[in-house]
Amino acid sequence: MNTGTFEILGGDYASGGLASSGLKQQLRWLGTDAGVLRRAMIAAYEAEMNVVVHARRGVLRYALDAHRLDVVVLDEGPGIPDIAQAMQEGFSTASAEARALGFGAGMGLPNIRRNTDSLTVRSVVGQGTEVCFSLLLEPAPAASEAESSLGIVPERCTRCLRCLSVCPTAALRLRPAGPVLLAGLCVDCGACLAACRFGALVPLGGQPALPEAGTGPLAMPAALAGQLPGGPDCFVAGLDELGRGAPLWLDPWEHELADAVSRHAAALPDDEDPVISPACPGVLQLLALRFPTLLPLVAPFATPLVAAWPTLAARGASLVAVCSAGLTALRQAGAPAERLLLPAALLDPLRPVVRRLARRPRPAASPSPSPSPAPARALPPGDRLRVEGLSHVLAVLQALESRTLRGIRVIEPWLCDQGCLGSPLLPEDAFVAGHRLRGFAPPAEPGGVFVQPRPAALVARPGIRLDPDLAKAVAKLAWLDSLTRSLPGRDCAVCGAPSCSALAEDLVLGRIPALDCPYQAHAERTR
Amino acid sequence: MDQHPGRPAALTPSVTPVVTLGALVASLGAQVLHAGSGLDRAVRAVFAGDRMSDLIGHAGEEALIVTNLEGAQLVRAAQLLDASAVLLVGAAMVRPETLAEAQQQGTALLVSPFGLYETCGRLYQIFTTCREQTTATGGCP
Lengths: 527, 141
Prior knowledge:
The complex is a heterodimer of chains A (527) and B (141).
Chain A: E1 2-9, H1 18-29, H2 34-54, E2 57-64, E3 68-76, H3 83-86, H4 96-100, H5 108-115, E4 118-124, E5 128-136, E6 150-152, H6 162-166, E7 172-175, E8 178-181, H7 191-195, E9 201-203, E10 218-220, H8 231-241, E11 248-249, H9 251-266, E12 275-276, H10 281-290, H11 304-314, E13 318-320, H12 324-332, E14 340-341, H13 343-359, E15 384-388, H14 390-401, E16 410-414, H15 430-436, H16 470-486, H17 500-508, H18 518-526
Parallel strand pairs in A: 10-11, 10-13, 12-16, 13-14, 15-16
Antiparallel strand pairs in A: 1-2, 2-3, 3-5, 4-5, 6-9, 7-8
Helix pairs in contact in A: 1-2, 2-5, 8-13, 9-11, 16-17
Chain B: E1 9-10, E2 19-20, H1 21-28, E3 31-34, E4 42-43, E5 45-48, H2 52-58, E6 63-67, H3 72-80, E7 85-88, H4 96-105, E8 108-111, H5 116-137
Parallel strand pairs in B: 5-6, 6-7, 7-8
Antiparallel strand pairs in B: 1-5, 2-4, 3-8
């Protein structure tokens, strides 16, 4: 533990920032991550200048160890009559002299809050103010290091809390500096992407623009052809007009997989547990994290995107992935990032072309390819259960785990409503897009190998481990229990954790320096 | 880019080319009062504003701070953030203590002959041109 004190003199603008400079040197010696250092400096400088601007004198004290920095800035000054008001952006009581020097924007305390992991302000009018803040010094692992395709743009976050309430695995937190992903808990379901209206959560790892024309065909699921007016005919004609040639449709891989899963299930004894289809890559992640006991039920085939990749790579194709789980699965299968595209990369340039083509009267004679006769399935349809949408998938998998689901041979779960049509990365309503695709049977790529064995064993993900040492884990569990009971249990998420138990877990696992429950704080104030 | 009154304007185009401090000095005809760690230092972003909280909250490493706020505390704030340089506008008169602080902290201190508006306009132009060149030729002088 390393501690120190710096004196701060009120009104001494020429020396303003010296205390923060001294603290910066300490953090440098410790080898602090540059991002954390910057946040610490913003907070320290604002707190220091508050003393210079408002008070007669003050001190900045710090305590520093390998894991966290605690700073207390204490002053003798006028005090703050209404702290809530002072925390509002733009509120300031700074003098004209301070304003002339660029201070008094009313952003001091809000800037501290935004850049620290905890902040408390106490003040007595006529005596002084105490500002305490802490920062955790270990940087969070970057999202790109983890197996997830969720990107975060913190400055766009409006703290609306919608993402916290939709995440099925409690993988998101809202810290003062913005949303944070606990990547080990993310299953790439895309629910938060659909919930975020402000662009703070974005898909990661796909190219935002099309590659040069002539650099290879584009591969995509038919779901994309339902996104624009005019349906598949106009879509294909539009692609041709853009010089992209005919697309390689991914759907045959999906259809062939469904048949292979059926045949696999039919070959098993009647009283066997149902087989789970590996069609949706997001479902595989969900199983590995939330339902590891169900992993042995997954049919031993690769997910269609992964099965298709070798064929597509051999054709020099770029692939338009419609969901973040797909992007992650493809990256794991070795697809290079420059060959993966986000849907908008294709739909944005194609939209004006397709709109024009769709307005042109077409001869009624262009018969869309007649729906191919449904391939003979090895199982009667009643033995198959196709489940779509996250909440339904969770319910069915729970029922399956508790063995209350009987008489089913194959379960085909899809995380999005209407399968891939409901992906949050696709702009069109799933039912509208589905209607446009009615009767469309995407032709199979000749010479493709459609069903591939699973490339690697499915492994349960560790999720949360309180401690690798069992004795310590037990002690932490008891602490976690008592903490959870001490919280109000409202799961309001205002603290930035999705539930009271998640907040307690964050403290026990050292993700936050202190419990900061706004409801408890309010109750204490009114008492 | 959303603009709020009073917020500093991030002048950097979305694809960030790297421009050296020296290139900016030459284009603006700026006066170099102190070169800091050298005019070959990279500038990746530009932040302009006259409120300390805005500058300190937004400007980061390898940023150029463009401001009217002449003073030792501004130089110190720039150093805290590891900003590339401070560019004072409007041919500002720089007090000896401000220059002394820049020399002591090793922060580059420049003075633009133009006002805030024209300085920002010219900087924007430099970054936009450079971005186009980066896209076209893969490099920017």
